[in-house]
Amino acid sequence: NRKAxxxxxxxxxxxxxDHVAPLTPLEAQxxxxxxxxxxxxxxxxxxxxxxxxxxxxxxxxxxARLNKEFGAALQLRTVFEAPTAAQLxxxxxxxxxxxxxxxxxxxxxxxxSTAPLTLMQERIRFVEQMFPGRVTYNTPSAHRxxxxxxxxxxxxAFNEVVRRQPGLRTYxxxxxxxxxxxxxxxxxxxxxxxxxxxxxxxxxxxxxxxxMRKLVDTPLDIHAAPLFRxxxxxxxxxxxxxxxxxxHIIWDGWSFDVLYQEMSAAYSAARNGQPSPLPVxxxxxxxxxxxxxxxxxxxxxxxxxxxxxxxxPGIDARGTLPTDLPRRAGMTGxxxxxxxxxxxxxxxxxxxxxxxxxxxxxxxxxxxxSALVSEAVGGGGVVVGMPVRGRPVxxxxxxxxxxxxxxxxxxxxxxxxxxxxxxxxxxxELLETFAHQDVPFERLASEPEFASYSQKSGFYQGLxxxxxxxxxxxxxxxxxxxxxxxxxxxxxxxxxxxLMEGPAGLTGGINFNAxxxxxxxxxxxxxxxxxxxxxAVAKPTATIRELLDAGGEEQRRFIAWREARLASASxxxxxxxxxxxxxxxxxxxxxxxxxxxxxxxxxxxxAATDNFFDLGGNSLLVMQAVEAMxxxxxxxxxxxRYVYExxxxxxxxxxxxxxxxxxxxxxxxxxxxxxxxxxxSQIQASxxxxx
Length: 691
Prior knowledge:
By secondary structure, this protein is an alpha+beta fold.
């Protein structure tokens, strides 16, 4: 009963007491867009978007909407710098007058059955080839569903989503020496069902977690559809748990938001015997993949790349995080998590602190986390890896797929800054970075300017991820949905913090590579971060140094850990004695030169017995090493061999990976064709029987 409600009290900073109506049609259109994004009608053109509840995600939606409506090319920072409808209208008018053009539109492809891999997908495919059988890129989710369940309707709804979203029908296939996405035209899914209601109540949740952990720890084969696994568990009469785990090569965090929206609509319709209300998708991931391949050849890409190439040379950042265990060849890649929970009251207070700096809680928590990482490496600037949604236009919002990009955000931490000044500095850095967020991290890592930095400090010292999930659809057609925390079993990073905001506050975790860190260290990072949050709320005008020094027991333990690890690394470091150069053959010399350029190690210090990973290599650098060897010498090396073999072993057998010249492969191709059910012309001399 809206008439019975009292008039809202507009006490928030940035919200005017007097309603100011639009003066022009442009202002009216911008105001309408803001009202729809905020789902909050009735404010004026001078009211502040962020004071009314806007945040980074909603600002990104507003930017995409305005760009589409007006054919503009506004950046995300425009909304932060011009947060009222009047100011945004002026910014759009200025963009029109200066001739700022919109990026090339994404075209709908006639053939929706195949597509090239994006660079982001190619890296994951490459890692899967290097480390077969790992579960690093399994992305599990679990959903408590309370209410009367119609299992048949639920399965129909899920299959409607599979029919609608080509990403869920995609797999990765080889074509000669290259790889591509293939999309099955049809895919019918039967959701496995297990009734746990007969398990004793006190053991039911434990049994559920055991069942789901088995699913999480089972690899997904990226070469066969579907690239996901699902299951339904009955816990009680009106209580079920839906498990859904896609492979990261077809999925990202925002895709879960799309899943929530579509399952809500599709299940409601299926339950009531109605057709699906979901509209036809404007684009597909196939369309995006083709567009992305062309975009990488264009002027906008070159301009963004030029920004990064200018940005990174000479930045101040310390080395990598000190680890509990040494890096070594043959690491398992296993990962674990130490959970973080921040209640609603503290979350709200953090929002209030962020508003003091005209920032968001995302920016505030990242500012505090970067200060923590700086303290862990001994002070000074750091680079924090930050995933972004990577959907450059609004029509990609409803598409499930892997759009994520990683941004290396340079944060020159200065503990003398007040918290407010530091948060504003982080905000400026983020907005500058967001304006150049489309260059794939995989492409950036191959640039000499970035490689020279990464040789000293790694690509980044820590990972930070923040997702605002307050607007997620939690009513799935009459079923009340609640997320059940469950984590993947692999580690894509050394250590990172992820946070997700929901109605109850912030939840998240410290993810860590169990080959490098112990759980005690992850708990130490969590406790230290939580202390920083509480102190930031209690003393919002303090300096970063004062906040870091106010940690009490958490600070003492954290500093003791850092000093012990740095001292241990210093003792363990071998004396700087030259190693014999690998000059046993031309291949060894050539491979040593390639490694030297990629790893920043003097070629004279590379021994024939050295392993690439032992010298500081990683999967991104292996990709570059393989490409460089093939490009410069015509020698193709299976990347899996880099994990365990030495430079001498790789160089000695490199030529053997190519078929010998003059050998007739036709008879063998006929045998393979008969066994595999293929045409003989489909089999290349370089093909592998199992592939």
